[in-house]
């Protein structure tokens, strides 16, 4: 089959409640198969928003990294991350370190940054004994399903992310910015429209206002594109939230979100957003060796709780600038 053959698109298995699945016949050469079918795979992602490739037999980080690099035009570093990752090689990381017994709510990678991946790639080297699926949801459908009054307000105001970086919770300053040099971190914040303030204890507090609804740069479809629910304090386990507020204060939480104008996002709104996400969630249990390609703008992704070992690599590919998704709000520090 030639790289541009449309036949690969017709082989995609479309089942309700599951991401599109393509069964590959890699014959032990995953890297060669990926290179030979790159254009068709990218076309499948454009057509469906994501595609799960089964049968590549990815078993080790080195092979997976070669495959990921052949499918993306460019890999980008993980900056402003909210949770730590292990780096396997340039541009290839572990999935975000998140408690295995907790849900990682649906979101779009780095939706709070001025530049974010257009393509997310996940390679499962070791599937968990139970749970742990990387779930997906169509962002345009989610936007349509949310109350118009709510989405119009967020489209008008954008959303506000507040963070406190320390060495105890979430990504550390060095993990998030790739440096421990204060001047370099301050320069990054200034050049990326992030308001920042260094605290007496050495921690850093930041705020940034971003668009909650964007237009896909290829298809032109409007998409719900943010991390309003995932990074909000009301998504936390209640006991964890109470502990963090008690220890760090309401203004010192590792992260939380607000309306773009500064008003708090209520628990009821966070619950509603997550309920709409759940109603549009597609899931398929990982099988060791799988590869999942996700259009990061059109498709939200998350992770279900799991038991046992789970090794999934992640790569952030084909960076897109927020300005390419206009019309958007004017981004700013607050």
From TrEMBL:
Cofactors: Fe(2+)
GO terms, biological process: antibiotic biosynthetic process
InterPro entries assigned: AlphaKG_dependent_hydroxylases (IPR050411), TauD-like_sf (IPR042098), TauD/TfdA-like (IPR003819)
UniProt key word Coiled coil: no
SUPFAM superfamilies: Clavaminate synthase-like
Pfam entry (one): TauD
Residue ranges the record marks as coiled coil: none
GO MF term (any one): oxidoreductase activity
Domain TauD/TfdA-like: start-end pairs: 34-313
Keywords: Antibiotic biosynthesis, Iron, Oxidoreductase
Record's keyword annotation contains Magnesium: no
The protein's name: Protein AmbC
Species in which this protein is naturally found: Streptomyces fructofermentans
Gene name in the database record: ambC
